[in-house]
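With this grant's support, we have settled on a layout for protein records. One resulting record is reproduced below.
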Amino acid sequence: MGKKVFIMDLDGVLTNGTFLYDKDGKAYKTFGPDDADALKLIKDKVDLVFVSADYRGFPISEKRINDMGYQLTNVKAKDRLEWIKSKWNLDDVIYMGDSFVDIPVLKEVGYAIVPKDAFWFAKEFATYVTRHDGGDRAVADAVFWIAKYILKINEYDLLGI
């Protein structure tokens, strides 16, 4: 087993999945609190990867992920499993998605995480269902679960308290 990689699908995980449109098209997405700060706690322990299939909203998502200090990659949902297989050993992958389109990945990776408000069928393939909804601390919740159950680091040590 190699170093773990935490791959997060953006919409519905780091956002609440809502697309806000104005007359010119997709204008905004809602990102929640604590996720960026929680990711800082494990960024030296696991590789962090952000993906999106939302081509129209990509500039919005990319701006937020870049502001957090990371990169966002566009990967269509139907191509995602093969893309992941080409880069990582599936046993080393922790994948967080929220939709039925994420199921092919969720069922193949080492660890599958979904937010509390994920599509019901996606939950059936989850190793862990967070206590929080997507875009509302779901990633932070996942970080603490990863630390405790995969990295074997308790919450207090993770926080340095």
